[in-house]
What does this fold into?
Amino acid sequence: MAEQTTSIRSQCPYCGVGCGLDLQPPAKKGEAVRRDADGTPMWTARGDRQHPSSLGQVCIKGATVGETLSRGRLDQPLGRTSLDDDFQPISWDEALERISSQIKTSLESKGPDSIAMYGSGQFHTEDYYLAQKLLKGALGTNNFDANSRLCMSSAVAGYTRSLGSDGPPCSYEDLDHCTVAFLIGTNTAECHPVLFQRLLKRKKRHPGSVTIVVIDPRQTDTAKAADIHLAVAPGSDLALLHGIAHLVMRENGQDPTFIDNCTDNYDSFFDVVARWTPRRVALFCGIPEKRLREVAQLFHRREKVLSLWSMGVNQRREGTAVVGGIINLHLLTGQIGKEGAGPFSLTGQPNAMGGREAGGLSHLLPGYRQVTNPEHRAEVEQTWGFPKGKISPNPGLTAWQQVEAMERGELDLWWVAATNPLVSMPDLERVKTAMKRCPLVVVSEAYTDSETSHYAHLLLPAAQWSEKSGTMTNSERRVTYCPAFRNPHRESRADWEVFAEIGRRLGFEKQFTYDSAAEVYAEFTALTKKRLCDVSGLSHDVLAKEGPQQWPFPQDSSPSQETKRLYTNQKFSTANGRARFCTDQPLGLAEPPCDTYPLVLTIGRYLGQWHTMTRTAKVKRLTTMHPEPLLEIHPKDADQFAVQHGELAAISSRRGQLTARVLVTDKIRKGTVFLPMHWGFTQTHACEVNALMHDHACPISKQPELKASAVIVAPAVSVIKPIEQHGNRLDILRRMIIPALR
It folds into this structure.
């Protein structure tokens, strides 16, 4: 295609807020051409004032995304037989033939479950959808999982258990109407900054209109703005929620009419929370009882409570249970399906919602269907043109289960696309060892030097956002059309096109012949008809003409910018239409501190970075905001373990050891330390914090507890480098890739 010369509207490719971007071409008549640090003509971004989700606001990452589009890109397919070999340039035909041949061999020798794919919320919905059709349909394995498993699967499971289906019931407009913003397990100021600024601006314009409550062991930038900050002990969230419910019921703050007409299991829930008295909860959480009562009063007065959460809740052994605890409070007080109220999960990835709609987890099918449901399988098989029984009735391997399968030698092919698990997975050394056991690791990636690329046999250059057309759905269920406005970089191809080509090479010509991403999207939307996430009335044309639209959007819907909420009729997606109270007992941390490892390490993100640094490390303005990772530690802990501000400390867990510079601060709870998760082994200040984290996961959502691990700290004698940086090993690894590039 010819490069666009006019401004383009799209969605930001970073976080789940899904801000609208107004993208400006590199040159305007009479003006100098804007260029990036490599001298490449560069598009620039600003907030799109017409986008209803962000209203023209954008954070620094979105504002600088144009600087990341060309630098450090993968030019062409690269292949090698062994991880000890140099990569060599190969053709797309050679690369695709190697993948399809391996698939055929594996199907004959071990069966379909010897193949797995690990995808990403960076996908467009079209990419997600065809990956499901390829694996779950053509190959007959449900071994597709995404980094949403590490991000949002506890929210998915929690919504489904309590309300009958995934799908956040709230909208961003509720930030303008709530009287209480209850933020738990989310550093919204740094991780979803545009939403947080929206809340702060309202509070500044109308003092007293909203009370902000923050639950977090750290005094984050989010907590600094709170009216009430509860610095709870890590792992005590569910006990806190039960304690709030206990006090609500003690003060008759519940909504008996809503409970009687719209919910089940209340009596069992009552029995559970009755035992979580204020004194017991205060001791368990390590907070003053008085503060607990202050928060509970906000709920039992039946204020408009909007609960917001993210990774601090989801990435837990009891993540699903905590989500259920949050929803319990809204069922107890009838605060759901109403303006300014409800349980609202904030997604991490820009299209995590779209991925869930497309069936992008190992237990899902498109349209919020379940692989275990025979009717759901039959509906999808018929649409896809596969015989009955083609889709397996068994949930596939989750992200971590795929790693375990590689350890056991059960996977012949692991295909990683648009994500970087060698930074984001737990217990990283174990992941690296597992990957070495897999005969064929394929990585589809836009950039050259990701950590995961160093452990691949095949590298496929992926067309990224800006180079392919498709859709994304943000946290408030709003779908945005993202047009291609740049030519694909060198030999890059869209992920959906690659999946379709593999399908055709495997003999499924009829099922995988598409002329455009718009055609793929049309097939997907038809599968959502009459489902909760119904987008059967949407198309690329409608979205391009009318702008972003919120679902549900069934056929014959009229485009509108009006806010949509779920469950306004108080009918839920369960078999009997009633929501269900959950009755989980608090368990605490999967790996609590002990004499050997007396501190709890929690991890998170910095404002200027996102997940891994594959994209953001290319922007000087972002790297200068946070030049290196810092270990936050309370002054008393610093004294006890003899570490000093500004010096290096060694941080050790049962799985490994690393070093980081110390930041002594009273803004973190005693007994807890914090590190950011961004710096993988390709970075100068490598700090592979996830190498310290354990693999224990929520038994329901299968989401790992990435927010807490037992550690000890001590003064560092020298910098502890990742194994890839020993000697000149990293340079050698890079030379295996870089000589084949431009």
Summary: The chain has four domains: 1-71, 89-151+350-550, 168-345, 599-732. Residues 1-71 form a domain with the N-terminal domain of TfIIb fold (CATH 2.20.25.90). The radius of gyration is 25 Å. The CA atoms of residues 320 and 504 lie 39 Å apart.
